[in-house]
Amino acid sequence: MKKFIIAAIALTTTVFANAQAETTVAKAQTEVADANNPDRVKIKLEELPAAIRKALTEDAFQGWTAKSAYVVKAEKPYYEVELTNTKAELNVVKFNEDGTVIKK
């Protein structure tokens, strides 16, 4: 029984450490992307166009929470929204101003 408890604690600790490492790596990648792309400007979630905020409430994004948002000033400007879920996974979705998903 003691071995089982110790194994369970070790497994839990490993899973937690892995989740933390993934979050740290994702954050570092985002910071590098910002430094490499001066046309990518961080904005408040409230500054997203209403169509994008509405799209984020649809079933396709159920279980995901918007973490941060960026406007990318390109030939055709678009918005990037970083989403996280309960497993600490990171997903970046690109939207047109009208709320249409460009890339999931």
From TrEMBL:
It comes from Fluviicola chungangensis. Gene3D superfamilies: 3.10.450.360. This is PepSY domain-containing protein. SUPFAM superfamilies: BT0923-like (SSF160574). The lineage of its organism: Bacteria, Pseudomonadati, Bacteroidota, Flavobacteriia, Flavobacteriales. Keywords: Signal. Residues 1-19 form the signal peptide.
